[in-house]
Amino acid sequence: MSESSTPKSLARRSLIKGAAAATGVMAFPYVRAAEPITLRYLGTAVNQDKAIADKFKADTGITIQYIPVTTDDVTKRAVTAPNSFDLIDTEYFSLKKILPTGNLLGIDTKRIKNADKITSLFTKGEVAGKKVGDQGTAPKKVMYVASPTAKEFSATPTQFMTLIPTVYNADTLGIRPDLIKRPIESWKELLNPEFKGKTAILNIPSIGIMDAAMVVEASGLYKYPDKGNMTKKEIDLTIKTLIEAKKAGQFRALWKDFNESVNLMASGEVVIQSMWSPAVTAVRTKGIACTFQPLKEGYRAWAAGFGVPKTVTGKKADGVYEFINWFLDGWAGAYLNRQGYYSAVLETAKAKMEAYEWAYWMEGKAATQDIKSPNGDLLAKTGSVRDGGSYEARMGGIACWNAIMDENAYMVQKWNEFVAA
Amino acid sequence: MSSSPRKSGALAWLQATPFALVFLLFLVLPLVLVAAVSTWHASDYELIPAFSAQNYIDVFNGCSNTSEMCVTLKTYLSTFKFCFLVWAITLVIGFMVAYFLAFHVRSVGAQTLLFIVCTVPFWTSNVIRMISWVPLLGRNGVINQGLQGLGLIDTPIEWLLFSNFSVVLAFVHLYTMFMIVPIFNSMMRIDRALIEAARDSGASGWQTVWNVVVPLSRTGIIIGSIFVITIVMGDFVTIGVMGGQQIASVGKIIQVQTSYLQFPMAAANAVILLIITLMMIWGLTRLVDIRKEL
């Protein structure tokens, strides 16, 4: 195969492949590759599970080599070193930075078997037919491109997706119910002086500022037209609120790494903080009470997906598509659902989960048996109900999405001010 | 060598060439690039070559305001503070340990063994080492529970962790080693006859240390100081983890900026940090001519 990669030939090549797929020469399931392929998978450690790579290797013979870095570094590498990976697992909000560089190719949905079954949250911004909050970088805004090499998003659905969703969730505050001993209902509790010196906030500026905005809005200080795209004035106000709280000694720490948040919560240094769902699970598997508390103002959602760099060609590119197809095929989805995430194609994941598991994780019903994590740790006893209830209740309660603002540079500068205050 | 100075001169140049090339390629060239990028512009996803001082102006944005100190000055001040505290403490401890090793431990075997003991802090990874401070210093940590158990305090001491104290503690724990080694090295080269002479002339133990040992260990002290100061000036991991991410440092600011792809801004900060650190080292080398003493 020619390695020439002028935009035209690329487009044509994928079209031919698309046509081949459409006429039934489809290669599902792919035959085992003649020579061993290794795919370099760039993403954050949270999403890179050894069990998934092992299972994929057993099913197809293709090796997945994980490159775990932080959320910010995924974006940095995608922009500065696109030939250092074969497959990227990045957050949707990063696309605003990555796509204009031309380092990613639109993914041809004709080559993705379950593309039309991807949840409507991504394709239309709906859960069970109802629109959810779209402040910030909602996936539907950045889901499509007009052609594989386009550097701008398409407002309407097309044949080419920027990312194929892997996992997504709706984040809220994590609390230690045993130490707080009263119901928590609002984001404003994060800055409640009652918890002085016992709270923490995320030190990833683009996400931390959204949590702060939820708090500002919940306290009734200001109502943002779009939390995910603040004006300079709005950024000033949000940071000012944070600085005042920090000077009053509200925060015990700021955290950047998933494990830090687990540590802060498990050790009791902090009783209420920004948290991610697997971190709550990790605290719980230590036998410590921890709740991922649903709040009346709603959730801050995030979503990650697979992207294909333009530098991947030939057999490797086929391998990447094979991996994405395998990922949507159910086994991985079931695995992720059991960790408290949500998978992109619910239908296939359901087929690979036990009925009682599905009822607990997805339908918000009381567990009829003990719920265990994929590696066998006890997560919830018989009779308990998942925080936030069913998929519809939780994802339907999304208030905003992780985002990159137009005033991003200014925001980062102000965030540094907060850290230095 | 002395037979043909010209030939040996050429030979010396030749010998120095490989290392000079390594320096040129991996130190000088990157630094030149950093300096160049610091005058560029950047958008969210690309660097735009330019020649402007805008990044430098932005770094000192608001610094003319006298009522409240700007972020940059505040950050440098906090970094200097840590630098000074850590330098002073590691110097005192490092000097004492080196003195003990050099003058009180007689056998080489025991010296080696004790040296290995000094490297214990480096046996685990940075992150594990720092995370393990939490169960010791934390609110429910060993120290607080111990003090409460003894009835000395009623409520846990909060400033043990995620505070200036814990940052300095972690630095000292780690970097005293960098003081011990060069000071020990200088001390071992002190002619023992000098110390005997001092004693014979009636100097007290303290006078001997102050008037004989300290001046002769000057080189080691300066080299150790350079190590400690340069490490602390550039650090962002220790301050981040031990300060609960709530204490600013220059390194941290640069790290945040690079992770948000604001490379020109980060480069400008790096150039300023480099200049300041070089000035400090230059000042130190004025005190001792290291090349002559070595």
Keywords:
heterodimer, A: 421 residues, alpha/beta, D-Maltodextrin-Binding Protein, domain 2, 5-stranded mixed beta sheet, 20 strands, disordered N terminus, B: 294 residues, mainly alpha, MetI-like fold, 2 strands
Structure description:
By secondary structure, chain A is of the alpha/beta class. Chain A folds into two domains: 7-170 and 302-351, Periplasmic binding protein-like II (D-Maltodextrin-Binding Protein, domain 2, 3-Layer(aba) Sandwich), CATH 3.40.190; 173-297 and 390-420, Periplasmic binding protein-like II (D-Maltodextrin-Binding Protein, domain 2, 3-Layer(aba) Sandwich). Chain A has helices at residues 7-22, 50-60, 71-80, 95-98, 120-123, 139-142, 177-180, 205-218, 232-247, 258-266, 277-285, 314-328, 331-337, 346-351, 355-361, 391-395, 408-420, and strands at 38-43, 63-68, 87-91, 104-105, 107-108, 126-127, 130-131, 144-145, 160-161, 164-171, 173-175, 199-202, 251-255, 272-274, 291-293, 299-309, 342-343, 371-372, 378-380, 398-401. In chain A, strands 1, 2, 3, 4, 10, 16, 17 and 20 form an eight-stranded mixed sheet that branches. A five-stranded mixed sheet of chain A has the order 13-12-14-11-15, with helices on both faces. Chain A has a three-stranded antiparallel sheet with strand order 5-9-8. In chain A, β18 (371-372) and β19 (378-380) form a beta hairpin. Chain A starts with 6 loop residues before the first helix and ends with a helix. The relative contact order of chain A is 0.16. Residues 1-29 of chain A have low confidence and may be disordered. Chain B is mainly alpha-helical. In chain B, α9 runs antiparallel to α10 (205-216) and α11 (218-234) packs antiparallel against α14 (263-287). Chain B has 15 helices and two strands. Chain B has a single domain (68-293), classed as MetI-like (MetI-like fold). Chain B has helices at 5-37, 54-59, 71-104, 108-118, 126-131, 133-137, 142-149, 164-188, 192-200, 205-216, 218-234, 237-242, 250-259, 263-287, 290-293; strands at 41-42, 47-48. The chains are: A alpha/beta (421), B mainly alpha (294). The interface between A and B is large, with 40 and 35 residues.
